[in-house]
Task: inverse folding
């Protein structure tokens, strides 16, 4: 019971923190997408290059201009994969049949104030593009953008015809700028919101997005599910303390005892492990639950643990727990390593201080990288269908692509099932080893000699 | 051009990590074969070491993403 409560508290702290930072990773994916689109544009097959000589302001354009993802656009596996692993403001279960769960959006623009509404107001259609605007906001590729050009109705809802994007030179780099089409005119859209205020390179946007996104919803669902099964298991232990585990207990108990006996006790020590066990268990089951949730087919395939911001917050929690609990020996080993010549000490201190920050950094990157890579691999294999089928133009090619994609995807999903467990375990074992190193006392032979004995 | 170079850099980092993890895994298997009763300790040590090797590669990949972006 104690654990389940702690788990819930921690999960909610993850939730709130990731909500505040959710836009970060979208910046990263944005930049990856940009580089990709630069490549395709240079080969001249993309219709965005035509916009080069056009002025940036809103201007008349024929109805022929359509979204780059229209029916005849060539299939672009990289941007499709990036779109599917990114966070979104709408939860799409199946894009084909259009089953979408609208999510609450909390938007803030400094000169305008708060806008709180459901993302269903965007009338989201194919490719998670909204068919309507609301209070000057539109939805493009699942995320909320704000219209910045004059003349667009900033109050209420209007129908928009589609989206287009062009490339612009910005500080020597080609940047993709999105435009919304409304009454035959193009209106420039702001980038996705970044709450860092553009410090990390995302650029300052005219609005901030605090919405409950797809990732946040997944986190809430998984946290509630974990809370429910842990509560159930805890009640069963309380009711029958001497009985063999039954039901959900037999699922939880092996994993729980494994983490306790193979991770917590060996790395932290028999005396102190109880203090850190709730944290380790929360991390393990939270990561495992979300890894597995993202693997369920036809359920949105959310990529929560593959989101850099979510893992960053988890790594920060670990960083603080490790350093707040750090004992004298730990800090001594960082700043003034004992038992080495004096001239080596400052050198080692520099290396150790770097290590202090590299540890959480790798913790963050490893989980996000592994899980995102798995999602991208599966999406690329599914993309084979559209590459061979020439975006639906060739049925035979599509059939060959499908015949290749099914076994490859099944194979990849089997691998990802193992990866889900391994990465949750690795995150936990590394956390335990960092904590263990921080709270360890007297681990040099000479320290023992001058210590208690 | 920087994008291509960054991709080559990421690839080189992955080769390095691959060799490293291969050595960790191979030696751990050897150790388990020599002393099967210590397999539990060796396995967790192996995963820990593989994670450290992977960490170095991840930093290189992150740097190359930044260079490409």
Result:
């Amino acid at each position: 019971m104690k654990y389940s409560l702690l788990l819930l508290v921690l999960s909610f702290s993850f939730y709130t923190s990731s909500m505040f930072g959710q836009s970060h990773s979208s910046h990263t994916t944005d930049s990856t997408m940009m580089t990709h689109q630069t490549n395709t544009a240079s080969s001249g097959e993309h219709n965005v290059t035509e916009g080069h000589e056009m002025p940036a302001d809103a201007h008349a354009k024929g109805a022929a201009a359509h979204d780059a993802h229209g029916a005849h656009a060539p299939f672009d596996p990289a941007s499709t994969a990036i779109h599917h692993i990114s966070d979104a403001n709408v939860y799409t279960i199946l894009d084909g049949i259009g089953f979408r769960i609208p999510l609450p959006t909390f938007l803030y623009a400094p000169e305008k104030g708060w806008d709180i509404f459901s993302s269903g107001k965007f009338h989201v259609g194919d490719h998670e593009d909204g068919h309507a605007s609301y209070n000057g906001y539109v939805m493009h590729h699942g995320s909320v953008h704000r219209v910045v050009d004059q003349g667009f109705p900033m109050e209420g809802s209007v129908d928009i015809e589609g989206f287009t994007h062009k490339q612009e030179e910005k500080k020597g780099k080609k940047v993709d700028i999105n435009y919304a089409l409304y009454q035959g005119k193009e209106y420039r859209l702001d980038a996705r919101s970044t709450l860092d205020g553009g410090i990390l390179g995302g650029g300052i946007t005219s609005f901030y997005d605090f919405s409950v996104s797809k990732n946040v919803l997944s986190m809430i669902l998984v946290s509630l599910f974990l809370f429910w099964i842990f509560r159930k298991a805890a009640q069963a232990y309380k009711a029958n303390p001497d009985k063999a585990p039954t039901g959900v207990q037999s699922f939880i108990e092996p994993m729980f005892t494994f983490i306790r006996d193979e991770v917590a006790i060996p790395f932290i020590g028999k005396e102190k492990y109880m203090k850190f066990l709730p944290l380790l268990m929360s991390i393990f089951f939270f990561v495992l639950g979300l890894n597995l949730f993202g693997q369920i087919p036809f359920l949105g395939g959310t990529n929560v643990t593959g989101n850099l911001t979510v893992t960053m917050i988890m790594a920060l929690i670990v960083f603080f727990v490790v350093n707040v609990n750090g004992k004298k020996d730990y800090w001594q080993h960082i700043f003034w390593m004992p038992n080495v010549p004096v001239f080596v000490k400052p050198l080692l201190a520099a290396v150790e201080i770097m290590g202090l920050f590299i540890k959480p950094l790798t913790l963050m990157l490893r989980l996000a990288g592994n899980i995102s890579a798995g999602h991208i691999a599966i999406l690329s294999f599914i993309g084979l269908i559209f590459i061979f089928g020439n975006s639906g133009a060739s049925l035979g090619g599509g059939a060959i692509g499908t015949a290749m994609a099914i076994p490859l995807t099944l194979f990849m999903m089997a691998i990802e099932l193992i990866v889900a467990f391994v990465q949750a375990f690795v995150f936990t074992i590394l956390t335990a080893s960092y904590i263990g190193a921080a709270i360890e006392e007297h681990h040099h032979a000479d320290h023992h000699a001058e210590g208690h004995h | 051009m920087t994008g291509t170079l960054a991709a080559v850099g990421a690839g080189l980092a992955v080769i390095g990590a691959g060799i490293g993890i291969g050595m960790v895994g191979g030696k751990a298997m050897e150790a388990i074969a020599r002393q099967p009763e210590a397999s539990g300790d060796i396995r967790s040590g192996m995963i820990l070491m593989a994670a450290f090797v992977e960490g170095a590669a991840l930093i290189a990949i992150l740097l190359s993403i930044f260079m490409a972006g």
